[in-house]
Design a protein that fits this description.
414 residues; alpha+beta; 7-stranded mixed β-barrel; 4-stranded antiparallel beta sheet; 11 helices; 18% strand
């Protein structure tokens, strides 16, 4: 059963990439506006393949902010044991199981455990990937072939991911949609999870006029350096690293006009906005501060210039993040900070994003998501944190949301 919540905003169609005006959810397609109520469209989510509009509407329903999803897995004990063994060995092979998503049943889907620092087995609370077409060709739910469920074992608020992705989207930056899900395994409640839209070819098709470009995920040590290029993992496309190499070469060869030199290979205005919003949600656990937790897409409709997207944002609102504004590990940002003109452009972008932040009802979104997740959180038998710890952490998060723009302005002397 879906838990329903009245919406805090209406949503609008996608902006142009890099547009950072204060828009509502840029991932929403026309005709699929989020009211926050259960979208009772009469859509059969497993029978929408011949109608792109129905498919988009059903997918929007699955990721509607403020609506709790229900996912029920049926796995044999043999499969559970095999998945646990794979996790211990660092393997990631899909094994067969059955799944029911909001009442729609699928048989013979692929299931695997995911994660690195958040890696857990079935005796605990595993993060999971479900691939509906792993063994049955063309099997999908609302056009979605992959479901990602994150266990939130390092997030004492149990809501940072949902909040951060919402904020990025509402600020006009493409990213994944996210809400919460209640996961059951063999009819046993495993608890509250983040239901996160997988970044793949379908994600690109919903956002770009030409989704045939190269989409890469940053693994540990991924960067635009000669050695760092090898750590970008292909998520869609052919895996051709030519454009990654071109950015690397451009950084090394850039002169006094650093930003202009790099604009041939990366959408620098979009990168500034991505970078600024990473600081505005206190996320320094991903690029350009840590060499992972980021996606990039070389858009063929824009000369294959890279755009940037957040990932792995469960450690956001780190207290020391505002002081990171003048520091970066990633080569693209580090080179920018070493160039007066580029640094000034980034600072100007931050000033613009701060004005956007001031217009966003983030505290209302916080209240909405806290209410959505409350019942399942209380019943979660496998959560890492006590109820009192979560309550305290959520109170601190709400205080941080209010104080963060001032902390950024103070750190940057704006």
């Amino acid at each position: 059963m879906l838990a329903l919540l009245l919406a805090c905003s209406t949503e609008a169609p996608n902006p142009e990439p890099g547009d950072t005006a204060p828009v509502e959810n840029p991932d929403t397609l026309p005709g699929t506006e989020d009211t926050g109520e259960a979208p009772d469209s009469g859509i059969d989510e497993d029978d929408t393949a011949d109608d792109p509009e129905l498919e988009a509407a059903a997918a929007e329903t699955f990721y509607t902010f403020g609506v709790l999803q229900e996912v029920r897995l049926a796995l044999t004990q043999e499969t559970i044991d095999a998945l646990d063994k794979q996790a211990r060995r660092g393997e990631a092979e899909y094994l067969s199981g059955d799944v029911t998503i909001n009442g729609t049943a699928f048989t013979n889907v692929g299931v695997r455990i995911k994660g690195s620092s958040t890696l857990r087995n079935f005796d605990d609370k595993p993060s999971l990937k479900i691939k509906l077409n792993a063994f049955v060709p063309d099997q999908d739910y609302a056009g979605l072939e992959r479901i990602t469920l994150n266990n939130m074992v390092e997030d004492n608020t149990q809501m940072k991911e949902v909040m951060v992705y919402k904020i990025f989207r509402e600020a006009g930056i493409y990213t994944s949609r996210a809400n919460h899900a209640a996961l059951y395994v063999n009819d046993e409640l495993y608890g509250l999870y983040t239901n996160l839209e997988t970044m793949d070819d379908h994600w690109l098709e919903a956002r770009y006029s030409d989704p045939s470009g190269e989409l890469f995920e940053a693994n540990d040590n991924a960067d635009f350096t000669r050695s760092g290029v090898a750590y970008w993992e292909s998520a869609s496309g052919t895996g051709d690293t030519t454009q990654l190499d071109a950015v690397s070469d451009a950084i090394r060869g850039a002169g006094a006009n650093y930003a202009d030199d790099l604009r041939l290979y990366a959408d620098m205005d979009q990168f500034y906005a991505f970078w600024a919003w990473s600081l505005l949600v206190g996320d320094v656990d991903g690029y350009p501060y840590t060499l992972n937790d980021c996606y990039v897409y070389a858009d063929p409709a824009d000369g294959n210039r890279f755009q940037f997207y957040p990932w792995g944002v469960d450690e956001s609102w780190y207290s020391g993040a505002p002081g990171y504004w003048n520091y970066a590990t990633g080569a693209l940002a580090a080179g920018c900070l070493d160039n007066d003109t580029c640094k000034a452009e980034f600072v100007a972008s931050m000033e613009a994003q701060l004005l956007v932040y001031d217009t966003l009802p983030i505290a209302d979104w916080y209240a909405a998501d806290a209410a959505t997740s409350a019942a399942t959180l209380a019943a979660d038998p496998r959560r890492t944190f006590s109820q009192s710890t979560v309550a305290s952490a959520r109170s601190q998060l709400l205080a941080d949301i209010a104080a963060w723009p001032g902390r950024i302005r103070e750190a940057m002397r704006l």
